[in-house]
Design brief:
The protein is mostly beta strands. The protein is built from no helices and three strands. Strand 1 and strand 2 form a beta hairpin.
């Protein structure tokens, strides 16, 4: 699964980890995050994330 980086603060969303502090279980693809999910570090919306090339 692809990792995504917040362009505002550099936070990396890793689907293998999810975002458990905000109710997103491990294994959740970025594309499957709720519409209103925001970066847990800076509050930027999903539009501010870019897929990382691995």
């Amino acid at each position: 699964m692809d990792k995504w980086e917040c362009l505002a603060c550099g936070y990396i969303y890793d689907p293998a980890v999810g975002d458990p502090d905000n109710g997103v279980p491990a294994g959740t693809r970025f594309e499957d995050l709720p519409y209103d999910w925001v970066c847990p570090e800076c509050g930027a919306d999903k539009a501010m994330f870019e897929k990382l090339d691995e």
